[in-house]
Amino acid sequence: MRIISILEAYSVFLALALLIQVNYVKGSNYSVSYDSRSMIINGQRKLLISASIHYPRSVPAMWPGLIQLAKEGGANVIESYVFWNGHELSPNNYYFEKRYDLVKFVKTVQQAGMYMILRIGPFVAAEWNFGGVPVWLHYVPGTVFRTDNEPWKYYMQKFTTYIVNLMKQEKLFASQGGPIILAQIENEYGYYEASYGDGGKRYAQWSAKMALSQDIGVPWIMCQQWDTPDHVINTCNGFYCDDFTPISAKSPKMWTEDWPGWFQTFGSTNPHRPVEDVAYAVARFFQKGGSVHNYYMYHGGTNFGRTAGGPFITTSYDYEAPIDEYGLARFPKWGHLKELHGAIMLCEKALLNGKKTNMTLGPMQEADVYTDSYGDCAAFLANMDNKTDSVVKFRNMTYHLPAWSVSILPDCKNVIYNSAKVGSQASVVDMVPEELQSSVLSPNRDLKPLQWEVFMETPGIWGEPDFNITGFVDHINTTKDTTDYLWVTTSFYLDSNDILLENNSRPVLAVKSKGHALHAFVNQQLQGSPSGNGTIFPFKAEIPISLKPGKNEIALLSMTVGLQTAGPQYEWIGAGLTSVEIKGLKNRTVDLTKFTWIYKIGLLGEHLNLYKGDGNEHWILVTEPPKRQPLTWYKALVDPPSGDEPIGLDMIHMRKGLAWLNGEEIGRYWPRKSSKHDACVDHCDYRGKFMPNKCSTGCGEPTQRWYHIPRSWFKPSGNVLVIFEEKGGDPTQIRFSKRKASGVCSLVSEDHPSVSVASWTNVNEPSAQKPAATLSCPASTRISSIKFASFGTPLGACGSFSKGDCHDPNTLSVVEKTCLNRRECSIKLTEENFNVGSCSSTVRRLAVEAVCG
Questions:
Q1: Which CATH architecture group holds 12-347?
Q2: How far apart are CA 164 and CA 604, in angstroms?
Q3: Active-site residue list
């Protein structure tokens, strides 16, 4: 779905600059250099605003739309990591197809007329499984990751060189006429270098020199690295980077990761970062001399299959980014940042060529002014106070600065933007459910009701055991991450006297594990499913169980939920059982730890390729699928959902497992609830330093309910939906849900900057100096009704507006006249439109909520 921008265009100057940029990217070779102030492309200084979009976290069919939406949002660069473990599946076995078609992704960026930052790494962290490093490399004898270790350096250099050569073959570096203007080696190594001692120091220097030897014709960067050698640029990552200073006086100030939100883990609350704070941080960075800025993430996307790191990183990697997981612009974040980017770009000449002067305007207020010899002048006025608004004097004029905000003046006179004053529309986004529709035809060619086929796993060992051993082995060392699942089984005998317990209590299975999750079966009955992050300490659980006299079978399904993604020596962090006991018996405690245990890697259904829908002889057609039955595979043939909206799979009535469509990996599902005792907020105060737990919501609710299925994965009919349910759910309640913007809102005040980016060329015209509320519905829809409209002192937020003490009764009719049956509209806050005499002693606002249909 294409989103029409709120601001129609930048200035003529910017349009010309963009045209020149496109010619650079699509034309012949061009030079990329830098100095202490900025990147210099073909002799021209450039402000670069970059958007992170990770190619394997979306699909090729989505790439053009995502990139175009980033461009409409004011970005001129796309950034992505390179995901080593997605490309080198085993030594010298390379894969660059489908979601991993890196060349196609970079060329899509090029076709959009944008630059590219390629963060090769090849270690990436990124909440990605094993930090992006292939698990097989851990088992190459003598290998220690990310230090002065010969096997590691050999494979790391080999893959880096492979990627560089691939880009060179396709002429994708700027020096060849391609879009890639920067490349990154390693990733945030400065956090961990000291833990590797002298070997860490040597490795960091070796990495930089190895990268420079690749001769790519564009600069290399290293993020969060505080000892980069000459000719490699060190960069900043974080929520704020205005105070960052490069190591070298010859390097520009770069911000490679500005986090506009945060990632989620199963069982946690939902973090939110207010757009006012994001905008404040970005404005401060450019105010303080920054010239290259990248949002991590601009589109987070989806951790399809088993690519999520961990433990417990969710399948959704939405990151509360400006473009949501499904590819839709997130309002007001996308719109407010678009306006910010436009305002910053209007300051480009002065920022990059001018002399900077800092002025104190108050105890926590300051101005940075940039002036050049041609008369260009740009100013940033900042109020760093996180509590109190301020009125300041600047160049003999008075300016109101909200707390924790930056005002941008491209001519050192008119405020075009304030980070705390959000004028962009907000959206009402729904997940609209739709029943699964059968693709199976009856003999008379009518569609039959949805039919399910099932396959039941038997708890315990299937086929021949892989091995027997006394005690426990490490889960990851055993499976080598070829599967999440490892069966560990044993048996023991009880006489009737052991089971007679006092007070009719039940015995318990006491387990300790390094992580990540476990299903415990006794005599083929599920007894409990503990889980926990065992990164530092083993998790413990005591599971009440039912036993019988005689032989009792214990079958434990040990599970990983994403491997560690970062940290010193992170590849050595293990998983799996460490201790198992039977407690609470009348006469003894049975320590099963030193028993002989039988091991089997993976599930029978995985071995039979049931996730592809194969193995018809193993599936059983049922009239009613079993419910609340653990270890059950389900398959149905379904039609695609109607319409063209993005699709999520609603798994709220399932409990934990994996899902596929037509053999494509949707990912792990787990509607695990956060604690209702966690700290959540009804309203987030954007003022003050942000941390991931500052503005959480969703206490006591499932962390993730919907799981993104790209539209391009659907066939016209006969789509094979396969679910593996571990704990037992109700498949009849599975639904598709269409992600749809059903309404839009706008809340604009009279003190909003009166000059917009779009009206900058007409800055002196009175009509350009009035704030306006702008609404825009998605493509193929119109504003069908106005749900709320009030000019005066309306209360609340989008979806919950109410009238305040002051209200112009004509507001609804004015808005309806301007907006009904239009896709987009703009209502200026003028005397002609509203009764400006009402509540004249206050700053009045216009609040509108419209329904799109």
A1: Alpha-Beta Barrel (3.20)
A2: 41
A3: 188, 257
